[in-house]
Amino acid sequence: MKIVTCFKWVNDEADIKVAANSNELVFDRVGYKISDYDRSAIEEAVCLKEKHGGSVVAVTVGEPTAKQSLKDALSRGPEKACFINDPSFINLEPSQTMAILADTIGKMEYDLIICGEGSSDLYAQQVGPGLAEKLGIPCATNVNKLTYVEEDKTIIAERRLEDGVEVVAIPLPALVTVLPDINTPRIPTLKQVLGAAKKPVEKVTLNELGQQYEPRLREISVRGATMERRRLRFGAEPVDIKAVIDALLKEGIIA
Predict the structure, then answer these.
(1) What is the pLDDT of residues 100-129, one digit of tens each?
(2) Nearest-5° Cα angle at 149, 146 to 152
(3) Which molecular-function annotations from GO does this UniProt entry contain (predicted)?
């Protein structure tokens, strides 16, 4: 089975600060990492390869500095990577990312594409389904368990929904987006990290894609969420306990 797994190089949310005189987010000293959701996607792709054989290609889109992500991704098990890069690929919106991925992956041989359910930064949950639509293949989202049936060339996916679990059978080629609880991503060993530097990386530029990917959104600002606390204090008397319950009922926290 030929597997393609997509990942994104995102800001490390632990380094993001909020400006003291406003609620604007500050990215001056922020670090980067592979999106936590995409680590699960890479891990699931590698686990399927280890169990059934085949190959795994890790694909990412970003500006040239995002090449730092390749070593981390390759140390987690894929045989090679595809790095689609251009200086203009900064803060891409989902419509751009899915179009770029579709133009690149559409030229590859693949049986299964695995994406994270969303990214750690935007969590728009649009790239996976949009990519499947552009490639004309079936898609299953919110997947927390995957089983490959070799005889039928079919993927059995368990989807976690709000009111239960749905089990679907999908003929290959197909695309799935996986939830973080589908697995526990491995921590690469020193040997795996050193070996990642020797793995092949195919680089694709905007000129090779042969078209422009115009944004459809205009970012005005990025602000931190604010939470106003009422700072109410309640005692242990029956009247105070009733006041707490009434407040919770009013806010819909309890029913």
Answers:
(1) 999 999 999 999 999 999 887 878 899 999
(2) 135
(3) electron transfer activity
How many other β-carbons are positioned within 10 Å of the β-carbon of residue 93?
A: 17
| Domain ranges for the chain | 2-209
Say how many residues make up the chain.
Answer: 255
- Between 3.40.50.280, 3.30.70.120, 3.40.190.10, 3.40.50.620, what CATH number should domain 2-209 receive? 3.40.50.620
Count other C-beta atoms under 10 Å from residue 26's C-beta.
Answer: 15
Region 200-214: mean pLDDT is 93
Residue 222 pLDDT more than 80? no
Whether 82 and 45 have beta carbons less than 8 Å apart is answered as no
**How many CA within 13 A on the CB side of residue 134?**
21
Token readout for 178 is: 């996986």
Asked whether the beta carbons of 159 and 143 are under 8 A apart, the reply is yes
Query: If we measure between CA atoms, which residue out of 179, 174, 221, 211 comes closest to residue 96?
Result: 211
pLDDT (0 to 100) of residue 85: 95
8-state DSSP, 198:
T
Give the mean pLDDT of 78-99.
94
